[in-house]
Amino acid sequence: MAACSPLPPGRCHINLELSRTAHPLNSTPTPDAEPGAAFAAPMREALALAQHAIGLSDPNPRVGCVIVAADGHVLGRGHTQEAGGAHAEVMALRDASSRGAHVQGATVVVTLEPCSHHGRTPPCADALIEAGVGRVVMAMRDPNPLVAGQGAARLAAAGIEILDGPFATKAHELNVGFVSRMTRGRPWLRLKVAVSLDGRTALANGASQWITGEAARSDGHAWRKRAGGVLTGVGTVLDDDPRLDVRLVRTAKQPLRVVVDSRLETPPAARIVEPPGPVLLYAAAENGERRRGLEARGAEITLLPSPSGKVDLAAMLADLGRRGINELHVEAGEKLNASLLREGLVDELLVYVAPRLLGSGRGLAALGSFERLEQSLDFRIIETTALGDDLRLLLRPR
Ligand SMILES: NC(=O)c1ccc[n+]([C@@H]2O[C@H](COP(=O)([O-])OP(=O)(O)OC[C@H]3O[C@@H](n4cnc5c(N)ncnc54)[C@H](OP(=O)(O)O)[C@@H]3O)[C@@H](O)[C@H]2O)c1
């Protein structure tokens, strides 16, 4: 099985055939390791399975599950399906049952605490109790502070052993958006830009397609795929007429496309208003005629004015959280980027650097000029990856 990057953009390749071997449950624990550390191999496989839920399970978290017999043989595997469909644990139980495997007393290795509440599907904890499994190893607890620990408590009350498993950080990163929505009520905001070596995102006349090469562009689509929403500003709509859908990689569903457009200047004929997928515009002032034109094309419009007469960006993120958007992928111009950065709403920068110089032009963010270096916005680099001729940087605010 290929290793996953700590922050997989949905391109982590896994080979299920290779993983059909028994997992050596007791091969690698160190003397002071937690008991759950013995389940590193099946947890690694569960994490790889969870990758298959990217672009499928939103707004539900991406979860993978492997059921292991006492001798380490895998009895069943599963991952979360589309919202309203089966969760990972139920899929793994079904897989075991379809092979005629008995799971009584078996160990369930799962990337997230099994749910204990009735949502669109019955609680996974109940399904595991009913199946008679003996132990549940989980990489992380439910991030929702209101329900965290309840799934584990329910399992423990039924006599099932509970262990905290390894790879909590990887499990968290896979669901960084779900965690954000559960704990902060808003999506994880990832701001993507393609820049030249001299930091330009467009020529002075607005032309920016394409600064980077093919590999970087299809990688960008993989990141769009993992987001529930892709957002831009009206300036980019007017300059580039982008579609902002997922085309260069396969996906089961399209993200919600969002435009920040104070005065509803998006032309009804803009490509972003065309299918596939829903479109939502946030505006700051009503304009009946423009509203009717856009709504006639299927766009939804929400008014969220700030005191300055623009769209209230923090309120917009809260609204997107209520709509179930876990990860928000932003591809906007320097004005909207600057507003998001100034308001401290950016959780991550995804920067593709092309080895070319564009001369004078537009920047990553129109932040104005600073007087002192201490006023700069500082980031730490999380990951660097070469993609064709370009370089991909992943950064988070310090
Ligand atoms: N290289 C890249 O990665 C990349 C990606 C995307 C775009 N671009 C380039 O960026 C250029 C467009 O940049 P842009 O700065 O004009 O467009 P933009 O940042 O995409 O959109 C800016 C507009 O958003 C509206 N807005 C509404 N509420 C806002 C708020 N709270 N804060 C900030 N803006 C708000 C503003 O309209 P109001 O003034 O009406 O409020 C503003 O004019 C194009 O040339 C495009 O090619 C490059």
Describe this entry's structure for a reader.
This protein has helices spanning 40-50, 88-98, 124-131, 150-157, 168-174, 176-184, 214-226, 234-240, 288-296, 313-322, 334-342, and strands at residues 64-68, 74-79, 107-110, 135-138, 161-164, 188-196, 202-203, 229-233, 256-260, 279-283, 300-303, 327-330, 348-354, 361-362, 379-387, 390-397. The chain is α/β, with parallel strands linked by helices. The chain has a nine-stranded mixed β-sheet with strand order 11-10-9-8-12-6-13-16-15. A five-stranded mixed β-sheet has the order 2-1-3-4-5. A hairpin with a 2-residue loop joins β15 (379-387) and β16 (390-397). α3 runs parallel beside α4 (150-157). Residues 1-21 and 23-32 have low confidence and may be disordered. Bound molecules: NADP nicotinamide-adenine-dinucleotide phosphate.
SSE inventory with pairings:
Elements lengths: L39 H11 L13 E5 L5 E6 L8 H11 L8 E4 L13 H8 L3 E4 L11 H8 L3 E4 L3 H7 L1 H9 L3 E9 L5 E2 L10 H13 L2 E5 H7 L15 E5 L18 E5 L4 H9 L3 E4 L9 H10 L4 E4 L3 H9 L5 E7 L6 E2 L16 E9 L2 E8 L1
Parallel strand pairs: 3-4, 4-5, 6-12, 6-13, 8-9, 8-12, 9-10, 10-11
Antiparallel strand pairs: 1-2, 1-3, 7-14, 13-16, 15-16
Helix pairs in contact: 3-4
The structure holds NADP nicotinamide-adenine-dinucleotide phosphate.
The site of NADP nicotinamide-adenine-dinucleotide phosphate has 28 residues, from strand 6, strand 8, helix 8 and helix 11.
